[in-house]
């Protein structure tokens, strides 16, 4: 019988980690005995308190303050009670350790607006440990305190895209729930595409990745005849100052789709524009998201993509695994990149969609699903991505400073939907 010799350098750190997690769990339970209970009991108590606040005759501002206090005071108990009733396909102590890290991290986020790396890591871990059940529960609970904006607020707001006019809001949202994405009939106008393309051609972009042996400069303007990297990224701050972009993020039809999908209010987390090139001539670059992966920068989020150039199968279509936002096999429930073959083995080629489209094509996608940008064989692709999330907890984000000279559409939208622009600051 062969005996395996344990390597102390790898074995002992793992043992120490397990003991640390056990000790942390024991200390947390001992310190928070008031958390003991059932999820049904704790939710009923919260709903009772919510009803009392909503039925009170106090001013709306005071109600919002009381709702936020109730949320902060109640979510640790509700989430802990939910966790104790789960059956996870993992080591229980690891699961509870991540729940504790999330609760403590979210308490810190409520007080500071910042997310610690450990808290962000715990959020991602809880996603794959529960196959998304944690995320679904958390957003439904969050929605009790931060409900959708009422319909009357949308009646007189800018709806230049009119994304819900041809298919209807509920049909669009249901398709995202079923498939994971929706390809809109409406498109961004040719005139706006032209202006934004010209803007991107003149913008100083960050090369990603940067190849020092090819270019000593990390920032360059995109030259279609002589690309020096896979991706050229436009600065987010510069992007936010563009009037066409301001009108785009002010469009209330986008906000209505996103919040309806979430079941709660949504905030614009990230604003991106980038050129994808054929620099590697069809070979995929992992750092440029050209291999299948899933996103976990926030507990609940959705991306709105807009093609500013025509996209075919050969120049970088967004590839999406239909239905993979709903559940994933145990073998794929992990962070990292995945080959086409790994994805095809489980989901089948018939569920792997390549989304091609004319200039102005608009897509809304829940990128908890497996997805990628296909490596370009020729030409280039210019794309805009608006990332909306339920809050700003999660991966690091950049605040945006805007001057007082906003477009009328954005100025009005920020007044009506302030939560949706939480990361934006206006004026000096």
Description:
The termini are far apart. This protein has helices at 8-31, 39-55, 60-84, 92-112, 117-130, 133-145, 169-179, 190-202, 236-240, 243-249, 252-262, 340-347, 408-416; strands at residues 181-187, 204-208, 219-221, 231-234, 267-277, 301-307, 318-321, 352-355, 361-365, 371-373, 380-389, 400-402, 424-426. The chain is 42% helix and 16% strand. Helix 1 (8-31) packs across helix 4. It folds into two domains: 11-145, no CATH class; 151-426, Jelly Rolls (Sandwich), CATH 2.60.120. It is globular and about 65 Å long. Strands 1-9-6-11-5-4-2-3 form an eight-stranded antiparallel β-sheet. A three-stranded antiparallel β-sheet has the order 8-7-10. It has 428 residues and is of the alpha+beta class.
Low-confidence sequence ranges: none
Average pLDDT, all residues:
91
| CATH architectural grouping of the largest domain | Sandwich
The CA-CA distance between the termini, in Å, is: 74 Å
Strand arrangement in the largest pleated sheet? 1-9-6-11-5-4-2-3
Proportion in helices: 40-55%
Helical run tally: 13
The fold-level CATH name of the largest domain is Jelly Rolls
Bin the strand percentage: 15-25%
CATH class of the largest domain: Mainly Beta
Number of domains: 2
SSE topology string: HHHHHHHEHEEEHHHEEEHEEEEEHE
Q: What does the overall shape look like?
A: globular
Assign the CATH superfamily of the largest domain: q2cbj1_9rhob like domain
Main sheet record = 8 strands, antiparallel
Radius of gyration: 23 Å
Protein structure class? alpha+beta
């Amino acid at each position: 019988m062969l005996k395996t010799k344990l390597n102390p350098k790898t074995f002992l750190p793992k043992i120490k980690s397990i003991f640390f997690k056990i000790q942390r769990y024991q200390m947390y339970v001992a310190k928070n005995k008031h958390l003991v209970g059932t999820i049904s009991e704790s939710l009923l108590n919260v709903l009772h308190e919510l009803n009392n606040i909503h039925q009170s005759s106090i001013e709306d501002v005071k109600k919002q303050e009381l709702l936020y206090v109730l949320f902060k005071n109640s979510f640790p108990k509700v989430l802990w009670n939910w966790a104790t009733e789960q059956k996870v396909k993992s080591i229980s102590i690891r699961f509870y350790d991540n729940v504790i890290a999330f609760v403590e991290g979210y308490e810190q986020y409520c007080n500071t607006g910042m997310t610690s790396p450990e808290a962000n890591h715990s959020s991602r871990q809880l996603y794959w440990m529960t196959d998304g059940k944690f995320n679904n529960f958390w957003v439904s609970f969050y929605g009790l305190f931060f409900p959708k904006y009422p319909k009357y607020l949308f009646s007189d707001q800018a709806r230049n895209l009119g994304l819900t006019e041809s298919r209807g809001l509920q049909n669009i949202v249901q398709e995202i729930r079923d498939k994971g994405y929706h390809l809109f009939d409406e498109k961004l106008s040719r005139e706006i595409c032209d202006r934004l393309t010209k803007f991107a051609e003149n913008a100083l972009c960050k090369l990603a990745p940067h190849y020092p042996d090819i270019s000593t400069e990390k920032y360059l303007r995109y030259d279609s005849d002589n690309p020096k990297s896979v991706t050229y990224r436009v600065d987010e701050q510069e992007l936010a100052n563009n009037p066409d972009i301001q009108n785009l993020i002010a469009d209330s039809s986008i906000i209505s789709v996103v919040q309806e999908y979430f079941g709660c209010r949504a905030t614009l987390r990230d604003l991106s524009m980038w050129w994808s090139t054929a620099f590697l001539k069809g070979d995929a670059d992992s750092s440029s998201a050209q291999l299948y992966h899933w996103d976990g920068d926030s507990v609940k989020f959705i991306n709105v993509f807009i093609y500013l150039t025509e996209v075919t199968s050969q120049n970088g279509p967004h590839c999406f695994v239909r239905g993979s936002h709903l559940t994933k096999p145990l073998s794929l429930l992990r962070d990292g990149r995945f080959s086409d073959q790994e994805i095809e083995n489980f989901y089948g080629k018939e569920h792997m969609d390549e989304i091609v489209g004319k200039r102005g094509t608009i897509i809304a996608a829940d990128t908890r699903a497996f997805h990628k940008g296909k490596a370009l064989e020729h030409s280039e692709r210019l794309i805009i991505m608006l990332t909306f999330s339920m809050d700003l907890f999660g991966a690091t984000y950049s605040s945006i400073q805007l001057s007082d000279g906003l477009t009328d559409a954005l100025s009005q939208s920020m007044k009506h939907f302030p939560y949706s622009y939480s990361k934006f600051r206006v004026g000096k």
